[in-house]
Specification:
Order of helices and strands: EHHHEEEHEHEEH
Strand order of the largest sheet: 1-2-3-4-5-7-6
Shape: globular
Distance between the termini: 32 Å
Structural class: alpha+beta
Number of strands: 7
Largest sheet: 7 strands, mixed
Length: 157
């Protein structure tokens, strides 16, 4: 059993970024050092200065109240989302729980006039991609890993 929390620790979000970057790792290759991840601007921007207006996160907690996964978003040019779960908790519905909760919060925000679209990166072989496509996200022709959900259209439908 898992429960959700809205208290996001930037250090834990950084751990989740590491899981995102190496989600497909089968354990046969050594992962790069954790510290190198945050030297890359494309990753660091999702945790640096966490807690600014518009930041939104949902964490999954295990029975001991330890975080095991997170879904979070930040507003850049568009709202971008990231989601990750520790490998030992994957394929147990945790990602679906996180994503469903975050999307519900974002739809509520859109209803209040804050957001128009949500963007997420999901490689073609990432299992989360099917989940996202089934929930209103669409592929983009310019970037095969990017999926976009038009929140305004979701509100209409």
């Amino acid at each position: 059993m898992f429960r959700l929390s809205a208290r996001a620790d930037p250090a834990f979000l950084a751990e989740m970024l590491y899981e995102i970057a190496y989600w497909h790792d089968d354990g046969e290759e050594e992962r790069p050092p954790f510290d190198t991840l945050l030297t890359e601007p494309d990753h660091a921007r999702f945790v640096e200065g966490w807690g600014r207006p518009g930041d939104l996160a949902v964490l999954a907690l295990d029975r001991r109240d330890e975080p095991i996964g997170a879904a979070w978003c930040r507003r850049f040019t568009e709202t971008e989302m990231r989601i990750a779960v520790f490998p030992e908790f994957r394929r147990q519905g945790v990602g679906s729980l996180l994503l469903g909760s975050l999307l519900g919060s974002l739809l509520a925000r859109a209803r209040a006039g804050g957001e128009d679209a949500l963007e997420v990166e999901a490689a073609p072989d990432n299992p989360a991609r099917r989940f996202l496509l089934a929930r209103g996200f669409a592929e983009t022709p310019d970037r095969p890993t990017r999926l976009v959900c038009d929140l305004a259209a979701e509100l209409m439908g």
